[in-house]
């Protein structure tokens, strides 16, 4: 009985692996084609560059951003981790 169940289990693992591989390829491809690619195209179209990696930002000598000086508010102090 144990040998029969092991053969069934081994066969099922092979089939499940093929199903999982197919599903992964399909899901990742759909995610990229339907979500990431259009989002990237819209971002490029409107010039949004959140990483500031375009040629416009390459002229700067540093990546540091200026810090806003001022007194902290009670609201900002509540949001500290």
Question: What brief labels describe this structure?
Answer:
mainly alpha; single chain; 0% strand; 81 residues; 2 helices
Number of helices: 2
If you compute it from the alpha carbons, what radius of gyration comes out, rounded to the nearest whole angstrom?
26 Å
Q: Which spans of ≥5 residues are poorly predicted at pLDDT below 50? A: none
Overall structural class, as computed from helix and strand content, comes to mainly alpha
Strand content: under 5%
What general outline do the C-alpha atoms trace?
elongated
Please tally the β strands and state the result.
0
Main beta-sheet annotation? none
Distance between the termini: 58 Å
Q: How would you spell out the order of helices and strands?
A: HH
- The percent of residues in helical segments reads 55-70%
**Mean pLDDT across every amino acid position:** 86
Can you summarize this structure?
The protein has 81 residues and is mainly alpha-helical.
Tell me what you see in this structure:
The structure is a single chain. The chain contains two helices and no strands. The chain has helices at 2-46, 74-78. The chain starts with a helix and ends with a helix.
SSE arrangement:
Layout: H1 2-46, H2 74-78
């Amino acid at each position: 009985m144990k040998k029969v169940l092991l053969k069934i289990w081994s066969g099922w693992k092979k089939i499940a692996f093929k199903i999982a591989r197919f599903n992964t390829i399909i899901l990742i491809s759909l995610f990229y084609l339907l979500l990431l690619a259009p989002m990237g195209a819209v971002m490029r179209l409107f010039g949004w560059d959140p990483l500031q990696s375009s040629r416009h930002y390459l002229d700067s000598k540093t990546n540091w951003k200026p810090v806003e000086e001022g007194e902290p508010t009670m609201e900002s102090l509540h949001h500290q981790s």
